[in-house]
């Protein structure tokens, strides 16, 4: 039964019942959709089970409905709520579904009623997602309308402001100066209730709308034909301006998204474009017998709960005794000698800290990073002087002890429980800028001294969650091939951040040998901290945070890692462990389960003892144990206790975003991943039906950021699953590409890959796995580099080929046919130069005022001769790099000698230029001369050397290191840029010897060059496979793989895509209807796109 209901717009509502035992053909379901006027909603009992809508498994009817939803580009409204109660078995199921057109998806809310109403089906409630109307927030600055020139003049931080005797007063003077300047130069939003508007609405939309209303009023008063035409024109113009504004606003948003964006954020933007905003509502909190609903009461209740978690009384009595005894011993951080990390901060450190800061919410003082970046040079210098006063005088401003806490509900938790909120602290941006400079020095010293275990992967340069995942997968694979058990325990540390013992952090720093300004600043940072909770525009009372680190501060993560990483030092040698911040996992393998139990129980006891002595608490209820084993005979699971509480043994565990099952099939993870991606695809379905967000480029970018990034995550681990398991994800990939390109359902997948320029998932997994392996090899002391198989284990894998190899060996097999097999990767030392002593580099450019294309070569020669006359006392050295097909070389020309080397084929010309400079500097080292000038025609190399940062090219890092050493030895080395191919003899000679270099220079390869070469290799393999598909209809149109530009208008782009692929509704719809293919009455052959457009004489006259 179908009815049309007018609710804002005309909506078709169709009630559907599919009997459980009747056979329903796919064609009948598709025909139903063709008959319904859009937009429509399908509601009813479909009698199908699928994990997509919350069932435990998927049956044939469920798979049929999945195909029905996918083939017709429909959106499923259901969540995982149960909709049916089976009384004989007293079980709940999900049988009733709500399916809608994509245009309705962002406008609707879905819920399931809680009362059966004397039925066995719960009611489905579908309602419009009305906007909350208005929300009251604190006034905020409108930076897009700021007068920055006026701000720069008014925000003049003077010397008298920062030279007061009291540090707190000096900081307050700076805050008042900046805030007063902001109030007078940056407008604020109204403190009145905030009215929602669409994000694409601008002045042009407003003016065109006013003109449309004006013409309507004229026509209504004087209904003449002329006025009617004027009104129609104004209406069409307003509609065109609105659509253009929508499209431009959406494209600007799409250009800014990355893989870190979540589906929730994207949905929020899509709904905002439709005028739908999430209604903010204050939660109702329950504390014992009391209920709190007033905003101020809620804020105070949450503040009290947060303060209680970090209070001294929250610890057990035993630890309080240990704590009180330890804190009686003061820690004397006074430095007896000058340590380099205690030196005063320099301007380049300050500027780098500001450049690395993201635009976050301001702290209690209201200052933002945007304001700090727009201060004039004098104000910045005075601000740096103030920071150095805080640093050297070892005093801490009292304002910086306070934070504003924003409570964030933990995912999937009860909103009425105050303990289910995460306290995110907003602190002063001035303070966080200084924290960032201090943190850079602290991390440098920790890494150089090796204070943090290499098995801690959290928030460290060159490390990621993948390290812990690969370590665990490798251990399990090696245990399987040995036919051993491997038992792994995954711990949950309760309130880890909020209960970190501050004295324990300082004691760890003291034991590491830190003295002077650095540890004293950290001590002041951690002491006397207070906070207020903000709910909307309401602020709680002040509360004391007695222990823990403030979540949201720059230093908090580093300080937390310093303390917690020590737990790994207490593991027995037979037990392996890893940490990602506070995600702790340990494992032990062997053939004797009783021995494994004893070893793990001993390890658990030692971990619990360490936690008892350091203020942490391991939750036995939330911790989990998994017994990884592929043995078929019966054997008992291990029983391991945390304080007489047995750790639950489960069949699978979600660890750092990847689900590990006990047989390591990764089937649960793939099913869970597929379910998440299916739901995220609703975004693509909705946008593909809009006039502003449906262009192919935008859809592909969203697919890559939201869905494909989720598939890519951890694929180097779960990619070891069987092909039958991994193929379940291919349907997601293909469906998404069909939506993005608008290709017809019958289009070959090879054509989809080519037209959208997207690799198959199998090739993507190979690329990501190989790149991860090379990336790990470029990081010093990376734990993955120690996972190479010993000879005995390699023979065992060869004797048992059914066992899957670990990642390190799988990667070698992938690269067996490429030039990257057995290459060494150059180490990227992120900590070559300390933050307080960054290398300074500059170069000469005597040709800066001349444009090369419009300047004669003789002019450049004359300029160079004049330059050489000025620097005649310097020995000239010319360097150059060259790259051609199958050859990469570098050359160095000295006054009396030349030097040339051939490099690996995967090296870029940029790397060749840098290697040439590096070789020249090495040759300078034994010379008796002290004045040299190096000439190069690579401006990019010189620019890279002059802009040092942590992501600099490793060869450039070597150059800066050697250059610093040479200058300390008394060498005076100048760099100069020269134009290429203008007749400068030294440069021409360097170019020739680089192109014909024959002596191979054995060097480790930079990761960036390996990455480019690997991607190029995969594309060439893809091209070879595509060349074999000569019968593919797209191949005749697009024989080479490459990205073709997309048309902005979706309808035209879809038609062109279908014509290129050769699959259209007219030529291939018969495959779904079970009919014969349409035939040409003139040529007596089946209709094809090529036949209609090229071959058939009947269509040549059209």
TrEMBL record:
UniProt keywords, alphabetically: Nucleotidyltransferase, RNA-directed DNA polymerase, Transferase
Limits of the Reverse transcriptase domain: 389-660
Gene Ontology MF terms in the entry: nucleic acid binding; RNA-directed DNA polymerase activity; RNA-DNA hybrid ribonuclease activity
Pfam families (UniProt xref): Exo_endo_phos_2 (PF14529), RNase_H (PF00075), RVT_1 (PF00078)
SUPFAM superfamilies in the cross-refs: DNA/RNA polymerases, DNase I-like, Ribonuclease H-like
A GO CC annotation given for this chain: DNA polymerase complex
CDD domains xrefs: Rnase_HI_RT_non_LTR, RT_nLTR_like
Domain RNase H type-1: 871-999
Protein name listed in UniProt: Putative RNA-directed DNA polymerase from transposon X-element
Gene: X-elementORF2_442
């Amino acid at each position: 039964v179908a009815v049309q209901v007018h609710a804002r717009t005309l909506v078709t509502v169709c009630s559907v019942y599919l009997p459980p035992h009747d056979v329903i053909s796919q064609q009948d379901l598709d025909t139903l959709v063709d008959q319904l006027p859009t937009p429509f909603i399908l509601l009813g009992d479909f009698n199908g089970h699928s994990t997509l809508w919350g069932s435990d498994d998927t049956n044939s009817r469920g798979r049929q409905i999945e195909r029905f939803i996918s083939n017709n580009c429909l959106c499923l409204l259901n969540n995982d709520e149960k909709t049916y109660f089976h009384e004989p078995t007293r079980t709940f199921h999900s049988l009733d579904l709500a399916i809608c057109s994509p245009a309705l998806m962002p406008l609707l809310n879905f819920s399931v009623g809680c009362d059966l109403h004397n039925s066995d089906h719960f009611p489905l409630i579908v309602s419009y997602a009305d906007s909350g109307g208005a929300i009251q927030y604190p006034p905020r600055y409108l930076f897009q309308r700021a007068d920055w020139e006026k701000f720069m003049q008014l925000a003049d931080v003077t010397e008298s402001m920062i030279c007061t005797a009291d540090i707190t007063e000096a900081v307050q003077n700076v805050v008042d100066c900046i805030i007063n300047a902001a109030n007078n130069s940056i407008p604020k939003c109204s403190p009145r209730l905030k009215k929602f508007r669409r994000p694409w609405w601008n002045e042009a939309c407003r003016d065109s709308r006013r003109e449309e209303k004006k013409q309507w009023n004229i026509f209504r008063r004087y209904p003449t034909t002329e006025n009617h035409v004027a009104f129609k024109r104004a209406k069409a113009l307003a509609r065109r301006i609105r659509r253009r504004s929508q499209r431009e606003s959406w494209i600007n948003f799409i250009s800014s998204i990355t893989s870190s964006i979540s589906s929730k954020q994207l949905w929020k933007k899509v709904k905002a474009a439709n005028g739908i905003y999430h209604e903010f509502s204050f939660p109702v909190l329950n504390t014992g017998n009391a209920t709190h609903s007033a905003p101020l009461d809620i804020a105070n209740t949450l503040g009290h709960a947060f303060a209680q978690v970090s209070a001294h009384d929250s610890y057990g009595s035993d630890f309080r005794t240990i704590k009180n005894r330890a804190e009686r011993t003061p820690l004397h951080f006074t430095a007896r000698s000058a340590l380099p990390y205690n030196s005063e901060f320099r301007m380049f450190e300050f500027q780098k800290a500001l450049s690395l800061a993201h635009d976050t919410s301001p702290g209690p003082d209201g200052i933002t990073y945007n304001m700090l970046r727009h201060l004039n040079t004098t104000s910045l210098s005075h601000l740096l002087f103030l920071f150095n006063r805080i640093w050297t005088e070892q005093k801490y401003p009292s304002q910086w002890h306070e934070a504003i806490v924003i409570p964030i509900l933990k995912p999937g938790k009860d909103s009425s429980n105050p303990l289910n909120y995460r306290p995110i602290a907003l602190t002063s941006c001035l303070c966080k800028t200084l924290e960032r400079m201090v943190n850079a020095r602290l991390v440098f010293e920790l890494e150089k001294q090796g204070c943090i275990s290499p098995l801690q992967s959290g928030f460290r340069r060159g490390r990621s969650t993948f390290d812990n995942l690969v370590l665990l997968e490798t251990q399990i694979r090696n245990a399987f091939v040995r036919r051993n058990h491997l038992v792994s325990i995954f711990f949950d540390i309760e309130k880890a951040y909020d209960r970190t013992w501050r004295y324990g952090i300082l004691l760890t720093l003291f034991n590491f040998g830190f003295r002077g300004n650095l540890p004293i600043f950290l001590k002041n940072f951690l002491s006397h901290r207070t906070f207020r909770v903000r709910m909307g525009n309401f602020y709680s009372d002040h509360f004391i945070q007695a222990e823990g680190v403030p979540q949201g501060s720059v230093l908090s993560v580093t300080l937390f890692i310093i303390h917690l990483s020590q737990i790994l030092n207490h593991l027995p040698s037979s037990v392996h462990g890893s940490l990602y911040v506070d995600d702790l996992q340990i494992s032990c393998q062997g053939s004797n389960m009783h021995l494994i139990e004893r070893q793990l129980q001993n390890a658990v006891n030692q971990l619990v003892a360490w936690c008892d002595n350091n203020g942490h608490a391991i939750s036995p209820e939330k911790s989990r144990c998994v017994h990884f084993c592929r043995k078929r005979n019966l054997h008992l699971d291990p029983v391991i206790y945390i304080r007489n509480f047995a750790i639950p043994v489960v069949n699978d565990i979600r660890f750092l975003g990847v689900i590990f099952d006990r047989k390591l099939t990764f089937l649960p993870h793939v099913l869970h991943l597929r379910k998440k991606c299916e739901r995220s695809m609703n975004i693509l379905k909705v946008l593909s039906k809009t006039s502003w967000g449906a262009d192919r480029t935008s859809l592909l970018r969203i697919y890559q950021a939201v869905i494909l990034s989720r598939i890519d995550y951890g694929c180097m681990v779960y990619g070891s699953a069987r092909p039958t398991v991994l193929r379940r994800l291919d349907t997601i990939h293909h469906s998404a590409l069909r939506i993005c390109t608008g290709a017809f359902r019958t289009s070959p997948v090879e054509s989809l890959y080519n037209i959208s320029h997207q690799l198959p998932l199998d090739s993507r997994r190979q690329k990501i796995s190989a790149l991860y392996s090379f990336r790990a090899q470029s990081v010093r002391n990376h734990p993955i580099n120690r996972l190479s198989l010993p000879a005995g284990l390699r023979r065992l894998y060869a004797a048992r080929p059914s066992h899957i190899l670990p990642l390190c060996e799988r990667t070698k097999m992938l690269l067996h046919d490429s030039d990257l097999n057995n290459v060494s990767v150059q180490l990227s030392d992120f900590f070559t130069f300390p933050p307080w002593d960054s290398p300074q580099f500059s170069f000469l450019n005597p040709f800066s005022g001349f444009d090369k294309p419009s300047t004669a070569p003789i002019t450049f020669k004359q300029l160079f001769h004049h330059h050489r006359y000025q620097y005649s006392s310097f020995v000239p050295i010319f360097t150059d790099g060259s790259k051609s097909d199958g050859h990469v070389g570098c050359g160095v020309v000295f006054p009396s000698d030349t030097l040339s080397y051939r490099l690996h084929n995967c090296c870029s010309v940029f790397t060749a230029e840098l290697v040439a400079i590096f070789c020249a500097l090495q040759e300078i080292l034994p010379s008796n001369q002290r004045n040299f000038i190096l000439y190069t025609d690579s401006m990019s190399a010189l620019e890279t050397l002059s802009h040092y940062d942590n992501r600099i090219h490793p060869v450039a890092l070597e150059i800066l290191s050697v250059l610093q050493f040479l200058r300390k030895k008394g060498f005076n080395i100048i760099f100069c840029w020269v134009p290429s191919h203008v007749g400068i003899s030294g440069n021409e000679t360097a170019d020739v010897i680089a192109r014909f270099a024959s002596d191979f220079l054995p060097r480790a390869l930079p990761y960036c060059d390996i990455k480019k070469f690997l991607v190029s290799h995969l594309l060439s393999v893809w091209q070879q496979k595509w060349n074999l598909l000569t019968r593919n209809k797209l191949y005749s149109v697009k024989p080479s793989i490459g990205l073709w530009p997309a048309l902005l208008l979706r309808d035209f782009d879809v038609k062109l895509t279908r014509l290129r692929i050769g699959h259209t509704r007219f030529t291939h719809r018969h495959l779904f209807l079970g009919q014969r293919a349409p035939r040409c009455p003139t040529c007596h052959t089946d209709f094809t796109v090529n036949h209609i457009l090229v071959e058939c004489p009947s269509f040549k006259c059209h």
